[in-house]
Amino acid sequence: MTRVLLHIGAPKSGSSYLQGLLAQSRPRLRSAGVVYPGDRLNHFAAVPALTGRSFGKLERGPAARAWRALLGEIDGWTGTAVLSSEMFAWAEGDQVRRIAKDLGDGLEVVYVVRDFSRVLPAAYQETVKHRNTATFETFLETVAARPADPDWAVNFWAGQDAGTVLRRWVDVLSPHRVHVVTIAPTDRQALLQRFAGLVGLDPALLGEHDPYANPSLMDTESEVLRQVNVRLPGALRGPGRPYGRFVRAGLANEVLGRRTRDPELDRPLRLSRRWHEWATEQADRIVAEIAASGAHVIGQLDEIRPPSFTGADPSGGPAVEGVLAAACDGLAGYLQRGPALLPPLDRSEEAAGHSPVAGAGRGPGGPGDGQAAGSATDLRRRAREVGAIAASRLPAVGPSRRRGRLLLHVGVPGAGGLRVPETLHLHRSLLVEAGVRSPEIARARVDFLRNEQEWSALLETLRGSSGTTFVSSETFAGAENAGVVRSTLRELERTAQRVEAVFVVPPFADAVVFGWQQALRFRADLSLADFCGQLARPDAAAAATAKRFWRMQGAGALVQRWTKHLSPGRVHVVIAPHADPAVTWRRLAQVTGVPTGVASRLPPLSRRALSMEEARLLRLVNQRLDPDFPAAAYGRFVRETLSGQLIPERPGNGGTPPGLPEAYRPWAGEHARRIRALVTKSGAAVVGDPDELLHDGPDPLPEVSAPDDEGVLVAALDGLADWIAYVAENKAAL
Questions:
Q1: Which of 250, 244, 235, 259 is nearest to 327 (CA)?
Q2: Mean pLDDT for the chain overall
Q3: What is the rounded distance in angstroms from the CA atom of residue 152 to the CA atom of residue 150?
Q4: Within a 10 A sphere around the Cβ of 350, how many other Cβ atoms?
Q5: In the beta sheet, which residues pair with residue 408?
């Protein structure tokens, strides 16, 4: 006769710990005469066949086959068999009798119980890992009321009401075949020793390390997970969806459960005094019912009773500061899992891991100093190479040839929030209807001056064109060397084009904010005040961040640089009014000759500036990311997806608009007036009112050290939920 030990729970009483040890020790157990059948962590897959309940994808048909397979593996075994699932505790009446009949006269039941004040927080965390959005207080109120709904309250008592569970089994089996194992509150090894002794094993055979751990969460981490559940789209909240992989396993267990905790902020979830007293009453009742059942007790029933209440009453939940830290850790940790959860980057994205504004490395000002795109040396070298290639392939333009009109959008990057290259790409077919061609390119933003293949392809596309062609690459703004500008224009002229330069110029305050946030998108850790301080210092040229800003965003010098090589009539300056990309787009369309009616049909793509809270979130994420996180992965997951799409597009008020600190507003105003004067004197064709360049942005923040933590927390939770949804939607093989 096979001796069968059926471990039926209780839930949150060390079940995952025991199952993990049993699962990893299957070969050693067999050698010792003990079989743990199957090849999974536990035997949960068979439960629906026995209890009549279905769990997500576990339906009764497949469960019946799983149960028959377990019985087949046990049949004929001459030693001891161990089966384990907390859900067996849900079996009632005829279900218990069927299990007893199927497993034979050698069946014994094992039920593990623990301190009830510890069970309640653990049970709540498990519900949060299964989509629950209720607070801990609401959970306790519902459990105490013992309602028919919601399901998690019913499920709690189905597994934890020890007196009821034990009576069902004692009525079918004799009391000495029903074992109750207690857990010593401070001695986890006691559970292993007591359980192994009951099986008849040396505990050393089970090992000590559980590779299938179900880590407990701190109070802060539980709140992060609950808030993420609130924000997740319905497709991730429903049964049978990838919630288990991307939220329960990915976020809760792999990221939050393994983060480094701060003992000042992260604390175990504890009962308040009120609920501790209630838990003690329930424990007293459970102890009495276990004793009355006649079941065999291994351990001391007093171990189930909560210890005396000590410490401060934790009513009110964790502090915002702690939840924020956990949310940022969770977001950074999950971002770093992106390469493992999404298809690999294609080679073109890996090759383009740099930015047209800044390099891709990591440094005190953000990107690495040595990889700044458009550096003078690189651009001069590329101009020479491009010139040689173009001269060998392209014929000189004769006087009789018809010259097309080539509008070259040079910069300024991020002007007015309008995403010029992407807008052109999106509306290419409608632009063609209006007589404006925009060449198809591999990426929305291509550094033509550093990429020989793309540059050559562009020149070939432009050769012999007539009509109007609009090419947009803000990277051209980085061509600060006169020789590079001259060579660029010469090679473009060889394609039978009349080249005109287009500059979209925002107010200087907007340019500063964009430059700061762009630095953050390249792993910088700078406040707006620190960034302004770098720009305003006399030795700004020595600061990598400031140098990049002035080369790409210094609109006045930029216009002057190109008007030296083009007549004023071939230079256009489009004023980008503050926070109004639609007006900017209409003005840009006016320059290209697109009729007003067509332009109104082309909604512009825009990217609003991050709020101060969102910008601080990005800084906090940058601080937490592994320094070895690949630049290409950072560009795809953090810069392009998180900060470029998900955070700016989240619904509702983004938070406090970024305003220049009061101390730097006079400095910014002086630069704005200088830019207006340079633009006016350049002789360029100006579209819009130059006085719009003087706009100094929203009122500055009060002199505080940081934006409001609650606002940053909301941004972090929104970003985390959106990122998980993004990963789930873009993972082909679930």
A1: 259
A2: 82
A3: 6
A4: 15
A5: 471, 501
Task: For residue 69, count other CB atoms closer than 10 A to its CB.
Answer: 15
Alpha helix positions (H), 521-662: 528-536, 544-553, 555-563, 581-592, 596-599, 612-624, 631-634
pTM over 0.70: yes
Question: Rounded CA gap, 43 and 35, in Å?
Answer: 13
Helix (H) or strand (E) holding 111: strand 107-113
Q: What HEC string does 261-324 produce? A: CCCCCCCECCCCHHHHHHHHHHHHHHHHHHHHHCCEEECCHHHHCCCCCCCCCCCCCCCHHHHH
- Quote the CA–CA distance of 262 and 684 in Å, as a whole number: 58
Pairing label, strands 3-7, 80-84: parallel
Which amino acid is located at 6 in the chain? Answer: L
| Lookup result for tokens 């019912």 | 289
SS3 content of the chain, % helix, strand, coil (to 5): 55, 10, 35
Instruction: Calculate the CA dihedral of residues 615, 620, 626, 630 and round it to 10 degrees.
Output: -10
Q: What is the DSSP letter of 363?
A: B
**Rounded Cα gap, residues 281 and 20, in angstroms:** 32
β-strand 685-687 against 80-84: which pairing, if any?
unpaired
Each residue's pLDDT tens digit, 414-441:
776 788 877 887 888 888 888 888 876 5
pLDDT at 443 over 60: no
What residue type is 341 in one-letter code? L
207 CB-contact burial (10 Å; exposed 0-12 / middle 13-18 / buried 19+): middle
**H-run or E-run covering 253:** none
Tokens coding 395: 């014929």
